[in-house]
Amino acid sequence: KLGGDVRVSAGEAEWEAPALAWTGSEYGILWREFVPDAPGSNTGTVRTLFARLDASGQSLGAPLEVAGEIAAQTLLWDGTQFVAAWSDNGHIWMARLDAGGQRVAPDVQLVPASAGPDRYPALAFTGSGYALAWLHGADDFSRSVMFARFDLSGSMIGTATTASTQLDAAAARPSLAWNGSGYGLAWEDME
User: Fold this and answer.
1) Cα atoms found within 13 Å of the Cα of residue 7, Cβ hemisphere only
2) What does the alpha-carbon distance between residue 89 and residue 75 come to, in Å, rounded to a whole number?
């Protein structure tokens, strides 16, 4: 471990599910934050925030709200911009943020509406586009891990592919990587 811990959020907020990306000189971080209506309250506001941090973890400006209450998120740096993806009410969305964290285009729904929710997105950058893996299906034994490729604007190239089927209800959190010529894909499954 190098250096001490750095708290990114402030105040009474509880935060979870951070996603971190490195630009070569600074970090981008995306997280979900719950702000209670009153201290100790179970009700409040949920939002998803993005912030830039220097190499030592110190804030480079105020956090920016990217989305409201979402289920899961992922973040990457593609060499010119941050790309965030998240699931919201069973749909997967993408936002592109410039180096300062400002949106460069309207959000794009990556996965069209389908039977069963889509969630737990994982992004990879190939140098010329993006790849996305996600979990599809209800909370029973009909979940699948899906995979699709997208151009730089977020338009799907071809169709989505099923990477694995018949996963149990505890299946979650795919992870995706590009090695220069192919993809590595992993996910949780309790079988």
Assistant:
1) 7
2) 19
Place of tokens 């180096």: 99
- 35-72 pLDDT, tens digit each: 888 877 888 888 888 999 999 888 898 888 887 766 66
Is the Cβ–Cβ distance between 147 and 160 less than 8 Å? yes
Give the residue among 147, 4, 131, 34 at the shortest CA–CA distance from 76.
Answer: 131
Question: What's the burial of 111, exposed, middle or buried (CB within 10 Å: 0-12/13-18/19+)?
Answer: buried
Fill in the DSSP letter of residue 138: -
Q: In whole angstroms, give the CA distance from residue 176 to residue 122.
A: 6
Please give the DSSP secondary-structure letter assigned to residue 190: -
Residue-wise pLDDT tens digits, 95-108? 999 998 899 999 99
β-partners of residue 46 are 34
Strand order from edge to edge, sheet including 118-125: 118-125, 130-136, 143-150, 156-167
CB atoms within 10 A of CB 127: 8
Angle among Cα 164, 112, 141 to the nearest 5 degrees reads 35
Three-state DSSP state, 158? strand
What is the CB neighbour count within 10 angstroms for residue 65?
10
What DSSP string runs through 161-189?
EEEEEEE-TT-EEEEEEE-SSSEEEEEE-
Torsion sign, CA atoms 179, 147, 187, 99? positive
